[in-house]
Please model this.
Amino acid sequence: MIKLALYGKGGVGKSTTICNVALAMAEQGLRVMLIGCDPKADSTLSLRRGRPLSTVLDLVRERRGDLALRDMVLEGSGGVLCVEAGGPTPGMGCAGRGIITALETLAEKGAFSVYRPDVVLYDVLGDVVCGGFSMPMRTGHADRVYVLTSGENMSIYAAGNIAMAVERFQGRNYATLGGFILNRRGVKNEDEKVEELARSFHSSIVGRLDRSELVQEAEERGMTLLEAFPDEQVTEEYRCLARSMLSGYAEEWSC
Amino acid sequence: MRRSHRILPVYTADVSGVCSALYELGGMVVIHDPSGCNSTYNTHDETRWYRQDSLIFISGLSEIDAILGNDEKFVADIVSAARELRPRFIALVRSPIPYMNGTDFPALARLIEAQTGIPAFFVLTSGMHDYVCGAGDALAELAWRFVRPPERVRPRSVNLLGVTPLDFAAEGSAEAMRRALEERGWQVRSCWAMGDDLDALACSGEAQVNLVVSAVGLPAAQVLRERFGTPWVAGAPIGAFADELCAALECAAETGACSAPCARRVQGRSGPVVTLVGEPVSMGSLAAALSLWFDCPTRVLCPLERHEGLLAPSDCAVRGEEGVENALKDAEIVVADPMYRYICPETVRFFELPHWAMSGRCYQKRLRSLFALTEEQCGTILRKI
Model:
C-alpha cells in the first residue's frame, strides 16, 4: 500500500490538486482512498458530485462506539474511496486532536484491511501547527510528504515550515519529503523561487501545474478537471504529477 | 448520567494496571504526567509499594512543556535515568494530558531505545480505561518482545497469566495457585507477573498450556497462541473447581484447543441465585466452585471493560454504578467487594470479598484468599449471611 500526504498553505489548491491526482491514479487502475484531514471536510467535494458524506468525527460524536466503516467511506468518481476526518465546531475543541481521533478510528475499524486500497492519499489542512497535523506523517500513515506551493511569499514560507517539520521528525522514522509541487499563480520568478526552496531542502519540484481557468470552471461544475476536460494540456499535468508521485513504487505507474 | 458514580469508586485505571503488571520485572515504567507524586498511581493501588522496590517514575510534565510539545525533555530525562539504572526494559505510559495532546509515544519509545540500547515500548493507556486494559496490554507487550521461541515444549506445564495484586491481593495467592496445580500434576513454568522475573517469563514458550487466571492474562495468552500455537484455558483453581480446570488443561494439551471453563460452568438448581460482582475469570471460577459445592445457581456481573468470551450465558456485563445497581435490584445473595454493599437492596445477603482494584487499602484487613476458601467455610458463610 502506497501512502502519500499532501500539505501546503490554506487556499493554495491542495484539495483541487489531490482530487485530480486521485482520479489520475484511479485511471491507471489503482484503488485509491482519499482521506481529507481538514475540519472543513471539503477535500473530496469534487469527487462526490454533491453527494453528502458524514465525517468520521461527526459519526464518532453521534454514535460513539456504534459506528460502521461503510458510513465513513463513500465511493466517488472513478471509484476513489472518499473519507473526511472532519473536526470540532468552529471556534471550539481541538482540530488537531480531532485528526488524531479520526485517523485512529479509521485504523480501529480496519479501513485499510477492509477496502485494501493500493494508494492512500491524505489531504492535510494548511501548516503543521500542532501534533495533530503531524499525524498523517507519523509512522504507519504516509510514507512520503509532498508540499504544494505557489511562488507567493506566504505560500513559500508555509511550505518551508512544513518541510522543516518533516526534516525534524526524521529521528522518529516519520514520512520523508517526497518533493514540492508548484501550483503556478503567475508570480514573478515563480519557478526560480520554488526551485530555490526545494534546493534548500535537498529536494526537487516533482510537478508543475499551470494556472488555468479550466480548473475553476471544472470546480464550478462540481467535478474534477479530469472529468470536465479530460483531453486538455493542463489535465495532462495532473496525470503527470500522479505518475511522478508514484515514482519509485512501481515502474508501470510512475513516469 | 449512566456512567456517573455517586457512591462507588471507579476501578483502578489502566495506568496503575501497567505499573502493577510490570512491578517485579526489573523494568522502568515512566508515566508521562504532571503529577510528581507516585501515590496517584501506585501507593494506593499497589500492595507491594512499601516492601519491594520498583523503578516507577512520573515525568513531571509541566504546563509549558505540554503546550509546546517539548518531548525532548521527556526523552532526555528517561535516557539519563536509564543509563544510570540500566533497567531490563523501559515502558512508557500515557496519562490523560499527553493523550489529549496526541503525543506520539511509539515514536518516542523508538528514540529512547535507539539512544539507550534498552528495549522500550509504549503501553496503550489514557487513564480513561480500567486496570484490565493497562495490565493486559503490558503483559501482551512482554509476550511479543521477550518470550523466546521454545526449543521444546514441556509436558504438563503451564504459565499462570494475569496474576497481579489488583485481583489477587491476599497474601500467598500466587503460591496457592501454584500449589493447587502442582498437586494435580501440573508444573508451573512461570507466573505473569508475581514471584518470577523477566528471565522466567522469557521461557514461557516451553509451557504446554497457558492458564488465564484473570482477564488481565488473556491478551498475553492470545499473543503466545499466535506466536507458538500454545492453547489457553481461562479459569482460576478455586476450591472444587480446580479439578474441573485441570481436566480442561488436559483437554487443551491433548487437542490444542482454547477454552474458558469459568464461562462454561454448570448451573446449580438448589436455592436462590448467588450473584458475584467483579473480574470475570476469578468470579466465574468462584461461581463454578460454589455451584459444585452447593448446587446453587450463580451469575457473575462484570463491571469491567474486557470480558469477551469469559462470561457464561447467565452472566451479565454491566457499565457504571447505575448499571450495577439495576442488575442487583433482584439479587438475594451477593458476593462482592464491600463497597457494593452500599448500592445493594437492604434485603440482600451480602458476602464480603474485598477486591483491591475496587477498594484498595480500605478493607486490607478483611482480605480473603480465594484459594483458601473451603466448602465448609463457604457453606457456613452462605448460611449465616
Observations:
- The beta strands of chain A are 2-8, 32-37, 74-75, 81-84, 119-124, 144-149, 176-183, 205-209.
